[in-house]
Amino acid sequence: MNIIPKVVALMEKQIAFIPQLVSLYANFYREVVNNEISLAGITADDRVLNIGCGGIPFTSILIARQTGAKVWAVDRDSEAVNVARSCIEKTGLNRLISVEHYNGIDPLPFDYSVAIVALQVEPKKEVLNNLMQNGTPGAKIIMRRPRPELDHQYDLLPTAPKPVALTTQNQITFDSSVLYRVTDSPAQVSSFF
Are 142 and 40 within 8 A, CB to CB? Predict the structure, then answer.
């Protein structure tokens, strides 16, 4: 991970305990998450896996609030997980959001219908492969694609499989969220990699 993702992760852990800054910071994610909810058609019936939730799991919070879906917010950083648990507790969304320590490449302990992978998650190829290989056919996966000028700061999306749709995002660090769909045939997926 390069400097920008490290700074963002550290900043989230620091501001998570200052409600005014959390609220201000949330403004950067509202439109992003609205676009991703529309892209994947997320409803209260979905089971959403948010990989790379960070210390302030905005994606998880906004999805739970807007759709009523059950969300697993996961991160490989145990400190971020502890901060995120505290953050979720303060929102009163414990019945909808569970925060777990998970890296995205180990066997999946979650039965998801939609997975959203944060921009800073790496290695993206292995995470996508894991989600594709172990997801239920028809499950949806959203990954955020870095802006081309920041390719050197983030792990890039794999070139295959090809996404089935995308939505543009007006963010400083990423320009789109891309949608993949788990296929019926695991053999088909493994041939992509």
Answer: yes
